[in-house]
Amino acid sequence: MTHKLNALLLLVLALHASPARCDDIVDDGPVPELSPDAVNHGVDIPKFEPYAAPEAALWEQFTDVAAPRWKRSLATKKGEEETRYDGEWAVEEIVELAGVEGDMGLVVKSQARHHAISARLEEPFDPSASGLVLQYEVKLQESLGCGGAYIKLLTAPLKGEFSNDTPYTLMFGPDKCGDSKVHLIYRHLNPVTHEYTEHHLSQPPTPPIDTLSHLYTLTIHTNNTYAIAIDGAERRTGSLLDDFTPPVNPPKEIDDPKDKKPAGWEDNEKIPDPVAKKPANWDEDAPLMIPDEEAVKPKDWYEDEPLLIPDPKAQKPSDWDDEEDGDWAAPMISNPRCADAAGCGPWERPLKRNPDFKGKWSAPLIDNPRYKGEWAPRRIRNPDYFEDHDLYKLSKIDAVGFELWTMQSGITFDNIYLGSSSNVAAQIADNVWKPKHDVELAISEALSPKSPPAPRPGFADMLRMFKDRINEVLYSISTFYGALQSEGFVSALRQERAGALGLLMATLALGWLGWNASIILGFMYRLVVAAPAPPRPPPVAATSANSNSATAASGSGAKADRKAAKDKSLPDSAEDAWSPFWLLPESPHDVFSLVTPADIRRIRDGAQENFIKLIDKVFDRLLVLKAAKDLTKLQTSAKQLLNCVRILTRLVPFAYEACPDGGTVEDILLWTPRPRPGSGADYILGKQLVSAAIDLLFTSGFTVPPATVGEDAVVRYAIWENGIGQASSLGSSKDHVSNRVEVLRLVLVLASKTMYVSPAMAATSPNRALHAIAYNSNKRMVLSLLCSLLNTSLKDRTQGWAIPYRNTTTMDPSDVLSLQAMQTLFVLLEYQAPSSGGNEATTGPLAADAEADSSTPSMVLVTGAETGLQNLFRVFTAKLHRRQEFDYLVGGVIRLLEEGMRSNLSLLASVTKQPARSVMPQETTILLWMLLEANAPFKDYLVDHNSSLKLFSALMYFMLNGCNDPAQAGMVRTISHIIHYLSEDSRFATRLMQPFDQSILPSTMRIVDASLTHADFMINTVFTLLSSSKPHLVPVYSSLLLLVRNVSPYLTQVSKPTAEKLVSLFDIISSPAFIISEPYHVRWLIYLIEVFDYVIHYRAADNPWLIYSMIQARSCFTRLKGFDLDKARAELLALRERKGRSEAARTIGKTLPPLPSTPSPSGTLGVEPESVSAPASSLDVPTAPATSAAVVAVRSSQGTTSPALSDKARGKRPDPGPEPLSTKEEHQQSGVLTPPPAPAAAKLGTGGTGSQQFQPSVEWVFSWLPDLPLDPIISALEALAACTDRVAEEVQREAESTAAQLGGAMAGLDIKDSGHSTHLSSPKPGLASDAGGDSTTQLAFVDPTPAIMRWLGSEAMAKAMPDLEESMPEIRPRLQVMSPALVAWSRSLLWSLIYGSGMKPFGIWKNTQVRLFLVKNTP
């Protein structure tokens, strides 16, 4: 106790060595939202007085509530979807933070609406004489999340209603949706084409986003210059000729469009060696993997034991109703005998790499002797060239208007001035806006929690402050001691006076501590000298294993970071502030753990100039180190180069995320030309940084092996691994692989701008860094990088460094490289330049970078600086065509998927819950999807390849395996798109009719029926997914049903379980309550109807079981043809009233009951049919997550009993009912489709699951019902039903005759005769006929199913079919369309995977404000 007291006393004395700060005591909380109740708070608010503005074409203060000058538009917004301008406007007094009493403005009153309003000028205004001045106030009373507040000056003469198609002269004002900017767009009349073109300001300023009134001023001078001011301060000035994209004046010269490349021009630098021959011992057919003959089955491997068994402790619930809920079955649990065993189930020999495997042989590449270089067309004079030096002479203005879309209401416009006098605008600012703004600021400060006196800190606060002060003093002493050892006393005293004073006072205190001096000295030695420096924000320097180096590093690094945050503008020569960032860290962990997000944001937001200088200095150092010719001999340089990469990786995400004011520093940091540190030459950092990062991937001695003798190249564009474009590997070392990992991490960070925009803006918001890579015109670089990424992603690492299983502490760098290579490939192949709203990406700074590059110092080594007009990564991927290339791609994808399957099924993986490799099946499926989408010949090759069914089986396995895991919903959806895309080809659909080998599946996924085709397995998988009750799978259902629909014209020999499930699925989807519950359910119904239509017309004789199941369920088709909206509503309401939401979740998804005298299937795909339930919002009615048995009861009462009912629940089948009315008029005249009279129907919606439920109408029903091909299906089924009834009757008569001959003595016995099983005492009703009978009068019953199956597969069935030639549908697949929603989803999926993989081990984007997707932190 004495020791602790003396130590505490010593630290209290040391506290006096550093002055206390008041902000250590007062901890300001968050500023509360301003409320309308905060009227004045002691601030004098002036009353509104009108102001007279002279020389104004328009001066509007909105003094009249009626606002007679302003006219709300009644037009329709033109675009992809025509939308009315239904947003409300009002002229009313300002409510939020009002600075003037009685001041009114034009207010946007609606949220998430299109708004348009305009006011015509008294006479047209011509800005060509004296220029133009436009000024107006904007007040965001509810702030602004996404929307515009800009004004349009409409071109004279104004015609018709104001809309987005109305010609305008100029558009100016703030906008925020994703990025925040102040728009400035003017329209110029081309004197050659006589058409108007829009020209956008290239570098718009960022507007303030708060609830204060802000003044926006635009001035167009007669010398073709402009000025933008916000709140009276100029924010951007420049030239109308130079600062807008596209430039007004076109180029003088262009490429000659008539110039063609000569036929003999050779632009292939390398060609296959024509004299090379395949070695005699090269076996191309040798397999890659062979069974390990030396492997022995473990003694404790139980082949006869299943992995899952019924839970012996489970008990049937007391409220379980067998009639409604089906037969109860105990849940499955893991077999306890397999827990400690080596394995259960069939044992197979593991595979090992074939030592004789060599793969496909290809000739090595040699220099092309006829190579002439890249061809370029000659340059000619631009026939459309013109020069306009009077851009300020804009078109005459007839009106002003606001045409906006916004998610927030409360946007207020006021004090609009349009004229030619800057002096008048300045007077308005001084006399009208500034007094108001000053009052608003005063009220805002009065509302701030800083106004009341700060409360005295409590005991807990004092302890916290005391602890912080102790850490600070100890840190100061440690810093002083470190500097004392390394730099001497004078330098240490100059750097850290507080630490020296604290150490001095602590030493003096030892005199009066007496006999405790030795204890305190020991404590001081351990605390200050031996231990690492205590944490003190911001801790930038890295720790070291050596205590002295750790102390020095902490001191120097903290000093540098403190300077960067404290000094608003550090000079370039302050090397003590910059150099620690690349000198001190020893690993990426040091950078990511010590440079915290709080540190970075403090420098970025408080000292932005230092933030920019820091990145400039780090990049400048990177360029110097990159220029070294042999980094292998310069270990110190290589370490510093890696540290530069790491620091940039850490800092760049914070340039993309939104700052507190709503803007970003990306534009000014990365894309604004500025002097390069140390040289003064202008350069664009973003483009140079991207080019340098790509060069680092091919830097000799750093990421690729050193240059050979005689080769003097720092950057070597060489393909890393063998595969596509490369016959042999480079032989990279572990250091090369590790360095590639760090550089690829930087490339992904540079391309991650997409993560910081909303999904709605992701397709149109430019990603200039990614554009600079994907649209790079350096073909050699693109080919080298593309092939390197492909080969690295698909590399076989079963031999080498790869460890068998991943854990949280060990990760092989080659696996990390493979994952990052695949992710980089995704990003590059997926990127397309925005077609609209993203002009900056295609014609903005990227188009002007070449001019900036001309002044770049040569040491920058920008080898691929210019961008082209297309994504060369996609172009070259589309050009892959050689068979060996496709063999490599297919083999690599299948190998990765099979490795994932073996990993999931292995015992170690089941225990550790970790996959075998960091390249997950989810990334592999995405790669396959992108290759198929980018390369049409690859799809043709795949559908004809012998391995296509092996690939199909692996994909279906992962679809089944991932359906229960929401984290794998993206993979399931990706696989559904892949198989849907393949199903569009008839060759693939035909291949699916081949037998399916279930041995590749775990026992839980196998189907009882062994005679299955791949199509059977596919349909069973679709049924399992649709009945899995997983809301995250709802987006997949359309693709799954379309897959079945595309394959249906080629279906043959569909098995009995498959047929039952398919018809059962149709029974559910065609139920009236289900159809009207959601509008998209009709699409699912149409897909299934088309399946049966194709089968009836093309494949009836080839599918007896499916035809028989359809005959049994033909009442479903007649029920659908007689669809009655009234009855559907009543059925839905009855369902809600009888069962409710909780009870309805237990019966949907049941399979068809067994056909007469046939056993019910025990389960399909590892799921018992009785326990299957349908997903929410899919196979359900709106009030419950699944259809309930009440649907069955209602259908039974209406005479539309389906085959899914048991015999007991079905009873005798009634007549199908009257023929449906054929026209919409007949329905309306008969009153069939009138709303139900029940008051509940008017109160509740008839469909949907949300508050705005779907309301089906007569028009909606007639939009799809008449187009369903029900007539040919029903006529065919009725004809076949009559024939099958006759077959059943013949079999029955034969059985009765046989029974009569045998006599009553044989009653109760089974007699085998002619392949029939005759039961003399088991009477049952008829099969296909709906007419029932008294079963007690039947003397004998025989199962006619075998006879019916034989008849349905005979020529007699074809003759009994009605003539369906006129209704024969064309076999045409439904194609997959890459809709904007699908593109947005796929982009979010890609970046979410990249974000997730970046969380370990460093958390690259952790705690940054990502907007593309929602990040949920799990405990």
Q: What does this molecule look like?
A:
The protein has 49 helices and 34 strands. With 1419 residues, it is an alpha+beta fold. Strands 2, 7, 9, 10, 11, 12, 13, 17 and 28 form a nine-stranded antiparallel sheet that branches. A hairpin with a 2-residue loop joins strand 15 (225-230) and strand 16. Helix 21 runs parallel beside helix 27 and helix 38 runs antiparallel to helix 46 (1270-1302).
Strand content: 5-15%
Number of separate strands: 34
- Class derived from helix and strand content: alpha+beta
Write down the overall geometry.
globular
Report the radius of gyration as a whole number of Å.
Answer: 38 Å
Low-pLDDT residue intervals, each spanning 5 or more residues: 1-39, 523-559, 799-810, 836-865, 907-919, 1141-1251, 1305-1339
- Please, how many helices? 49
Largest sheet: 9 strands, antiparallel
The percent range for helix content is 40-55%
What's the average pLDDT?
75
State the end-to-end distance: 38 Å
Secondary structure layout plus pairing:
Elements: H1 2-15, E1 56-60, E2 70-72, E3 76-77, E4 83-84, E5 89-93, E6 104-108, E7 113-125, E8 132-140, E9 147-148, E10 151-155, E11 168-177, E12 179-189, E13 196-201, E14 213-220, E15 225-230, E16 233-239, E17 244-245, E18 253-255, E19 270-272, E20 289-291, E21 301-302, E22 308-310, H2 322-325, E23 332-334, E24 343-344, E25 351-353, E26 365-367, E27 379-381, E28 397-406, E29 411-419, H3 422-447, H4 459-487, H5 489-495, H6 497-513, H7 517-530, H8 547-566, H9 575-578, H10 580-583, H11 588-594, H12 597-606, H13 608-626, H14 635-656, H15 666-671, E30 674-675, E31 682-683, H16 685-696, H17 734-750, H18 759-762, H19 768-774, H20 779-793, H21 813-830, H22 839-843, H23 845-853, H24 872-878, H25 883-905, H26 907-912, H27 921-934, H28 936-944, H29 948-962, H30 969-983, H31 986-991, H32 1014-1026, H33 1037-1047, H34 1056-1069, H35 1072-1075, H36 1081-1098, H37 1104-1112, H38 1114-1121, H39 1125-1138, H40 1140-1143, H41 1189-1198, H42 1207-1210, H43 1224-1230, H44 1239-1243, H45 1258-1262, H46 1270-1302, E32 1310-1313, E33 1316-1319, E34 1341-1342, ...
Parallel strand pairs: 21-24
Antiparallel strand pairs: 1-29, 2-7, 3-4, 5-6, 6-29, 7-28, 8-14, 8-29, 9-11, 10-11, 10-28, 11-12, 12-13, 13-17, 14-15, 15-16, 18-27, 19-26, 20-25, 22-23, 30-31, 32-33, 33-34
